[in-house]
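Sample log: ribonucleoside-diphosphate reductase.
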Amino acid sequence: METYKTTGVCAKEIQFEVEDNKIKSVNFIGGCPGNLIGISHLVKGMEVEEAINKLKGIPCRTKETSCPDQLAQALENYLQQK
């Protein structure tokens, strides 16, 4: 299980697990529960790079980032660490 501390969003942390380059699970700590559970279910089983391409750069209202964008950043960080 990987842990990523978010910045600039309501969720404080993202916990995720990757197996064979596919997202096995995602759990957001804090934030908007319904939306974040939905995102977690949508990306489950998705290739890491595909999730990054779909989520990267999504803003939240006037913020330059969002919880989906933070997940993309967490996954990019994971790939760089590998």
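Observation: Helices lie at 33-43, 48-55, 67-81.
Observation: The two ends are 14 Å apart (CA to CA).
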